[in-house]
Amino acid sequence: MQGKIALEEHFAMEDTLSDLERRLSDNGDWADTRRRLLDIQKLRLEEMDRNGIEMVILSHTAPGIQELLDTGEAVDLSQRANDLLAEEIARHPDRFAGFAALPMQDPEAAIIELTRCIKDLGFKGALVNGFTQKDVPDSVIFYDIPEYRPFWAVLNEFDLPFYMHPRTSIASRSQHYEGHPWLFSSAWGFSVEASIHSLRLIGSGLFEELPKLQIVLGHLGERIPFDMWRLDHRIERQPCGYSLPQPMSYYLRNNFHLTTSGNFYEPVFNFTLAEMGVDRLMFSVDYPYEDMIEGAAWFDQLEMAKETRQKVGRTNAVDLFKLNLT
Fold this sequence. Notes:
By secondary structure, this protein is of the alpha/beta class.
């Protein structure tokens, strides 16, 4: 399919690669991944052209801003990352768009930077790499707490989505992973963190307060679609403090969109499509951590109706992110 749009596609700056290098430098392909994170205009565009991808919405790689303990440093780095991204987008505005990186260590600072990115830089929403650390290394701050309600209200007014991207859990809080470092990684821990954070947002009543607010999850929903029935079923039998007027599946189907990033498996795709509906699913790759050739070829060979492919591959993203594409 020509004209695909991809949404979970990452870049980095030289001074934001330290955590990734600690975790990934022993991988045989780290040098190539690093090169591709730092590149936007050459390798990335060449691969987009070869694989029928018309536009990507770029975002700063994980954990990025969210691992910084000092709020001032987080504000500075998010501004520099967003300014760099805006410069790169300006070189090819027909091929690139951007998600804001935000200093979630301070909700007010996050509002200021979000507003700048959308009003001044023309970004299409925000992508945040999971929970935020602040002040001390083992801190974990989720965004369902009352301090972040003003942030969500501002994003809601802009009518643009928030992409909840995963990140690595804090080792001192993850004793159940000890002795199995692979559990911390994108193989498992990423989905655990992102899914718990998303369910916390639902359980906090956020979408009752802001019913038009939209969240995007990658990797075909961070495994949540497989548990939607059981979530509703067990909460109905044993609420355990869940007091919202609608079941969890209602908010998932009305306030969440899912992408195919890094989950190129047809049975999972078909199941997720059936659970969420064609209007709630979008194509993505997760470049450069995933191969653009593999992700695009997999999507292009999936058996589906032409209208479904067009929606998932392109028009759902055009509508949700208000992209100026015909």
